[in-house]
Design brief:
Helix content: 10-25%
Distance between the termini: 114 Å
Largest sheet: 7 strands, antiparallel
CATH class of the largest domain: Mainly Beta
Strand order of the largest sheet: 12-22-21-13-14-20-19
Number of domains: 4
Structural class: alpha+beta
Oligomer: single chain
Length: 582
């Protein structure tokens, strides 16, 4: 117990006698030196110094000493040839605590053989050289601390300003979102009112015009349709007839055969092995439907060659309609609960005889008007086909607009309008724009493009090019007026007489040698066959002898020639590297 007490007393005495370094100064009045200022000249500690050449570090140590500014790192002057920074820390050595000061030094300090001296309570460490900048560590520490506190205050102000701006913007965004939501709710209410009005009008019209015609059934509750069939629909009008069949099983194009010699289409889906024959009482395309052991059979009218496609699991047959010469639609639908018919056809108006019109001319008139030549105006769907390998479908008529999707060769688009270099089209339920040079109408396709289009449709399992006459949907409501007529070998009445003899490029005497495609409007280059030094440049719409340039693609030029009332199309392709046609 006495020994422990003596050790504790000795430790307390040593702690009370520990030396304290109040400050460190550096000056170069005569020679440069570091001055370690102790609080008292009594009980000064032992000292050592050590220099490490690879790290340019001079370490000094004081036994049983404290540092008034505290342990840590102190920056002095990173460009100084003497002291650049100091790191103060404590480390035990042989049972004693040493206060160590690691000094990062410049080129003027390169040894640990520096002279030392004692001036009262100041310990001096002298260096060779006299071109140093004087400093006091406590003042440097106070200045750095003040600068750090100022920087911290400035950073706090900046962050506070950013938070305030963010909060203000959040309030503005919330108000804008609330305003937009209110507008959307208002628009939704107006749309709901409009739809309600339309439903009410439709119900009223249905009550007046549409009455179910029940099919006789064997017993109450039996279906008016064959088993396994949900609905059959016939739509006639605007130059087309469409038959649509939807079964309990979703149909796919690979299960549907082409019409056989008896004009029967077979659908290989499961159903009853035998059923009665359901006769379709509307239209001239489909005569009847029945089941047998091979599946569902659709009996077409003799000679019918419809376009066959599958959409959303339903079979659609479509063909041109020539029997009805009235404006409007006929709608017929057979469902399990009955058959529904609606007729929007207008009664045919009296058509004056053309011969009566001829009689109004004076007998001595030299004009010859033939009553054999007749005209008929009818709406025709204008369908565009993508002829580029791949092109963008933009949200606006600009190449900088948002790209909604990409369309590839063979895709069908619905033409809506022409806007400079772009065509406004519909793809599915989307409306946007494509470059007009990347699409063509069916009657503008060259023979090479038509053959490629057939192959693409076969690979996709579609039959849209069957018969080389694409047919559009009568429900698109996107038509343009086209004049069709039979001239019976007489001169085309829409071409002026001088147009048949005026000078121009004779396409029978030229050949295509190049197409400039990167320009805003494509240009084709033609040279005369017998005199290659004579060349011509043409663009779409330019007149030639007896016709005009109809279409220019990347590989072909399509001409429209009109001679003696007969129109023909002539395609001229670029030669390949072997001299043949591409």
């Amino acid at each position: 117990m006495k020994c422990k007490f003596l050790l504790m007393l000795l430790s307390s005495a040593v702690a009370l006698q520990a030396a304290l370094i109040k400050d460190v100064r550096f000056n170069c009045a005569n020679n440069c030196q570091m001055e370690f200022q102790f609080a008292s000249d009594k009980n000064l500690p032992t000292f050592y110094q050590k220099y490490d050449n690879p790290s340019n570090t001079l370490t000094v140590g004081f036994s049983e000493s404290d540092f008034a500014l505290g342990v840590g790192k102190y920056d002095v002057d990173q460009s100084s040839p003497f002291v650049r920074s100091m790191r103060v820390f404590k480390e035990p050595y042989r049972g004693m605590d040493f206060l160590k000061i690691e000094i990062k030094v410049g080129a003027s300090i390169n040894s640990d053989k520096n002279a030392i001296a004692l001036n009262k309570s100041s310990f001096l460490l002298k260096f060779a050289g006299s071109n140093g900048k004087s400093w006091t560590l406590s003042k440097l520490y106070a200045a750095n601390k003040k600068a750090a506190e100022k920087a911290a205050r400035e950073e706090e102000k900046r962050l506070a300003a950013e938070r305030k701006a963010a909060e203000k913007q959040a309030v503005l965004d919330r108000k804008a979102a609330e305003k937009q939501a209110a507008l959307e709710r208002k628009a939704a209410r107006e749309e709901e009112k409009r739809l309600a009005a339309e439903r009410k009008a439709a119900e009223k019209a249905a009550a007046q015009n549409m009455a179910p015609v029940p099919v006789p059934v064997a017993q109450a509750g039996a279906s008016a349709l064959l088993p396994g069939i949900k609905e059959m629909t016939v739509l006639i009008g605007s130059g087309m007839e469409q038959f649509r069949l939807e079964a309990d099983t979703r149909l796919s194009i690979d299960k549907i055969s082409m019409p056989n010699a008896s004009f029967i289409i077979k659908i290989s889906v499961k159903g009853p092995e035998r059923s009665p024959v359901f006769k379709v009482s509307a239209g001239s395309l489909v005569k009847s439907v029945f089941w047998d052991m091979d599946g569902l059979n659709i009996q077409l009218s003799a000679g019918a060659k419809p376009v066959i496609l599958v959409q959303e699991g339903a079979l659609i047959l479509q063909t041109a309609e020539n029997a009805i010469r009235r404006d409007g639609f006929v709608f017929w639908s057979a469902r399990p609960n009955g058959i529904y018919v609606r007729d929007w056809m207008k009664s045919p108006d009296a058509v004056p005889e053309f011969s009566d019109f001829v009689k109004t001319y004076e007998k001595e008139s030299k004009k010859v008007v033939s009553s054999v030549q007749t005209f008929h105006l009818r709406p025709v769907v204008r369908e565009l086909i993508v002829v580029a390998d791949e092109t963008e479908f933009y949200a606006a008529p600009s190449e900088k607009a948002q790209v909604m999707q990409r369309v590839v060769f063979g895709d069908r688009l619905v033409n809506m309008d022409l806007n400079g270099l772009y065509r406004k089209v519909q793809v599915g339920n989307k409306i946007g724009y494509v470059n007009r040079r990347a699409v063509s109408f069916t009657d503008e396709l060259s023979a090479v493009q038509m053959e490629r289009l057939k192959k693409v449709d076969q690979e996709r399992g579609e039959m849209l090019t069957q018969g080389m006459k694409p047919v559009g949907s009568a429900l698109d409501e996107l038509y343009e007026d086209r004049v069709t007529y039979s001239s019976f070998g007489r001169r085309d009445p829409f071409v002026e007489i001088k147009g048949l003899v005026e000078e121009g490029i004779n396409i029978d005497q030229v050949e295509l040698v190049g197409i400039i495609w990167e320009a805003e409007e494509p240009v084709a280059i033609l040279v005369e066959t017998k005199n290659p030094s004579v060349s011509y440049t043409i663009k779409e719409g330019d007149k030639i002898m007896n016709g005009k340039v109809l279409k220019i693609t990347q590989t072909d030029v399509l001409f429209l020639i009109q001679e003696f009332g007969v129109s023909r199309r002539y395609s001229m392709g670029l030669p390949d590297k072997f001299g043949g046609q591409k």
